[in-house]
Amino acid sequence: MKRVQFNSRYLPYLFLLPQFVIISIFFYWPSAQAITSSFYIEDPFGFGSSFVGFANYTDALASPEYRKIAGFTIAYSLIVTTLALSLGLLLALKADAVIRGKSAYKTLLIVVYAIAPPVAGLIGMMFFDQHIGPFVKFAALFGWDMKVGLNYFDTAFAMVAVAVWNQIPYNFIFFLSGLQGIPASIREAAAIDCKSGTRRFWTVILPLLTPTAFFLLVINMTYSLFDTFAVIDVIVKDKPANNPITLVYKVYLDGFRGNDLGSSSAQSVILMLVVLVLTMIQFRFIERRVHYG
């Protein structure tokens, strides 16, 4: 491989400077502020702060409410990631096999990706509305009195359904690109060696898709933990019941509505460490099974 040569040794650093400045302003500096604030109890009106050490961390971890929300966040992230990846891959496999009307089929599946999460949340609330929601009426046919915003599990079901629906097109695009990147010669050789389509998928197609699947696994875990905030906010905001929320939404509630900046900062640092460990585990153990060709 031919290496790129620069006329000046400082030129590569000059190219990296804008990205470094952006990361410093929008990640490193806020992270440092959050870590600092997590060791203080701050006056909500800005009249001072008191150093409390690790008290904000111990209070959060010892709280039954925090542990309950953490448990829900884990279950929510796993379900959303699994369903979004599985359905995205299934639709990509079907789209890859379509011959007539291929463009229309792909456009219908991809168009949802253009919907912003807050709008997806509003559309989801219409689907699960108590009076006009088609999903509520459909569930009533089976005797399920769905009450989103009032019942804990019904609200959790709606949150998962809307989050998965909004993420499937993203996975579909990448999986379809990965499928179309597999050479025709390999497909033909696999078709000759193995007549079973299911076996060809598990032994030939899926191993070749593992780089794409691994990338999407990391992206989907991040999406379920952080980017579904807008969907959750639209569904549970101003609802009277004790609805399920994720850790990110609790950070927002304690920091911006409860004005407890110290506890909110400590929770954000804990969440940042959890995501860091989770990402390290993914790269340490799951990447071993990825075949890069």
TrEMBL record:
Main location: membrane
An example Gene Ontology biological process: transmembrane transport
Lineage: superkingdom: Bacteria
Domain ABC transmembrane type-1: 70-282
Signal peptide, first to last residue: none
Keywords: Cell inner membrane, Cell membrane, Membrane, Transmembrane, Transmembrane helix, Transport
PROSITE patterns (UniProt xref): ABC_TM1
Protein's UniProt keywords contain Membrane: yes
Membrane topology: Multi-pass membrane protein
Transmembrane regions: 12-29, 69-93, 105-128, 156-179, 200-219, 266-286
Quaternary state and interactors: The complex is composed of two ATP-binding proteins (UgpC), two transmembrane proteins (UgpA and UgpE) and a solute-binding protein (UgpB).
Protein family membership: Belongs to the binding-protein-dependent transport system permease family.
Role played: Part of the ABC transporter complex UgpBAEC involved in sn-glycerol-3-phosphate (G3P) import. Probably responsible for the translocation of the substrate across the membrane.
Protein name, entry field: sn-glycerol-3-phosphate transport system permease protein UgpA
Organism: Rhizobium glycinendophyticum
